[in-house]
Give the backbone structure.
Amino acid sequence: MLEVHDLTKGFGREEPPAVDRVSFTLDHGAILALVGPSGCGKTTTLRLIAGLERPDRGEIRLNGRLVAGAHTFTPPEQRQVGMVFQDHALFPHLTVEQNVAFGLRGRPAGQIRATTGEMLELVGLACLHRRYPHALSGGERQRVALARALAPCPLLVLMDEPFSSLDADLRGEVRQQVRAILKARQVTAVFVTHDQEEALYMGDRLGVFQRGQLQQLGAAEQIFQAPATRFVAEFMGNSDFLLGRVTAGGIETALGLASQPSPLPPGAAVEVALREDDVSFEVGEPGNGVISERFFRGAFNLYRLRLDDGQILHAHRPHTEIQPSGTRVRVYVNAGHPLAVFSAGQGVGGAG
Amino acid sequence: MRWPLRWPAISPRLALAAGLVAGFAAIPLFYIALRAAAADPEVWRRLLQARIGYLLGNTLGLAVAVTSGALALGVSMAWLTERTDLPGRGVFRWLLALPLAIPAYIGGIVHLALLRPRGGVIPQLLAELAGRPVAAPSPLGFWGAAFILTLFSYPYVYLLSGAAFRSLHASLEESARTLGRSPWRTLWEVTLPALRPGLTAGALLVALDVLAEYGTVALLRYETFSSAIFVQLAGRYDRSAAAVLSGVLVALAVAILWAELRAQGRARFTQMESGWRPAPPLALGRWRAAGFAVAAAAVFASLLVPVAVLLAWSVAAVTDPAMLAAVVRTGSQGFGGFVWNSLWSSGLAALLAVTLSLPVGLLAARAPGRLARFISRTCQVGYAIPGVVIALSLVLLVNRFLPFLYATPLVVVVAYVLRYMPQATRASESALSQLAPSLEEAARTLGRTALQTLLQVTLPLILPGLLAGGALVFLTSLKELPATLLLRPAGFDTLAVRVWIWAEDGFYMQAAPAALLLVLLSVAPLAFLLRREQGRR
């Protein structure tokens, strides 16, 4: 459906490219969520697919047709790609109805009326069709923008942080509606966000971006359990990293030996990713660290632990269990699955 | 951005001050309406039969022609410099705005000298080349006046539409592209319609300027209401007829101003909020050369030709000892005297206009509502009262109620303030509406009184906005001609007046140094305004 190959785009000679050799494919009807910190190149990738930017290198194919390549550039109006903008970009001089009908030009009047009505029905705004954008709430604008993008039945819908301008409590609700609409119509979509939770909710597949590069692409579970790079582990799931050294029997760390095989030669320096649910502790002397802070999270307590060698880890405990700061504890790994191990930022062996 | 109303109540003192300012601004309007209504029915009948239809046709025809011309030229130039890869657009942005420093009548004088049917430079040149008289386009009459006024009023539209193009979100045009529109169709279906209210407002201001224009139409012998009123006042001393004509003219202008204020209101809805991102300029491709040629032609006719001709004449005047003597000393007045008169009267008018606009702006920003809107709109009527009408009402009013002011330069300053206060009011309102009320509230909770807050917090923060308003009033007062001509005491010559009197007598070269200096003096406040405008991008 969508094939992106070796896509590269820079905005100036001194700066590194905003999008750096990105390749991926997307199947019909799937939603891909591109996630990463701001300025990581995910929005530029989206704009390259839409045809709003010209790639420096690489190819983009839609339904097998080359739309951007070394000698090809299809302008956005000929790509049949719908886009939902971060600011919604509703035309201020047109009503809701006229906005939705904007992309249907050239079709028979009856069909335009029917499609527009159907779209407004779909997003639940049929009663507001005569309003102008300035008289709509944020959530309503969002849905008009989606209806407008979907109305011409595009091959692909691109969404650039579409929920970021909404209030937090509205966001969850609109997000749910949008996903339901996309799934009901089997729309292929690429979705950009900097919010990992939103990416997990919206995406059938996730692509994690950093500094213009696609670090990892896969199902959400895969990315969580087997992060390809240290950055992915850190960004998706807030991992801590424990220094370690490869030995014959496994990986030697400040918390003891993790007995899992490693492809690296003995003596190699590595980092082990530990999420807060992989770590636990017992109170008691002599121990190997202290509690430095407790954060009450309602359903559980999150403890920040400082090991005797200065490394910091976090651990989950039940909300009933309250320990004061400064308590000496014995920290241990309680994962129940192989741990993700990184050497020089890249994933090696372990869970990968 | 508008801040929500958080002021506990309208301060009665502020409301009173603002109300007084509005009353002052509205005096000429009401007085003219009164005088027109009270005029002898015989005068009305005579004028209705013989004059009003003709003048209405002439005035409206010119207003429509100039407004459409300025709109077409201003918007297309703004589009070229803001949204395309026109070569040299950084320079064009300045050059296309600079004709604002040239009063239309000075531009008219230059083009008239070059093109006039008998004795014009270009017809003579053509006749010499061809060996016989050749018909060249004449700058006289309707088309000449329309050409000259378009040439020197398009920068208003250009600046307003340039700002509008810049404020437009790139995503608006981009979403039109993803919905199947080519760049050209996007311009016509999205960009221009979305900006239409703002552009309409700019065009209607040009129409008001055309109604008020005296110098150019008198010079090019095209009769409009303004020039007819001027003749009634200065030549025939028929104040009754002048009042009747003024009444009709002001009614027309108020209707246009009302439409302008409505368009302004609608423009607010189409303005985008935050998160502006520059839109990539459109590649003109093979049209690049054509775009460059059009922009260069506009700059050539509206800026290069007038400045070059004025320079050449000035050099000729200064190098001729007899003419130099005439330039430097006219009667009892020296050249320095004209300059000083121009500077102090315009400067004082700017100061007064800004000061008076403050209570109005404060009321509009801090206590928005019907009262504030009414007062703010009343303060806009100066736009609708042409200079000749202001002069007429001041002559009558001062004679009757303030005789000690009669025939003093102060009447001239009052005329400037009445005519140009709307510019100051708009600047103050926009500066104050962008100031968060929480800043003033913070000062109050930190122990400052309302007055201390105004002086220590509000004024320093809105000073740039006030300066911009003042610069605009100064610039337009400097160029003002008809009210100055009619109201000035004997011997009170400003640069504008001197240029006009010399040029009317045909002494173009003698007028040139004063005209050039007038243009140069206007460039300073204009450069300040343009820099501020471009800094907002």
Chain A has two domains: 2-229, 238-348. DSSP finds eight helices and 21 strands in chain A. The mean pLDDT of chain A is 86. Chain A touches chain B at residues 50-53, 75-79, 81-83, 85-87, 89, 91-94, 102-103, 105, 132, 134, 148-149, 152 (CB under 8 Å).
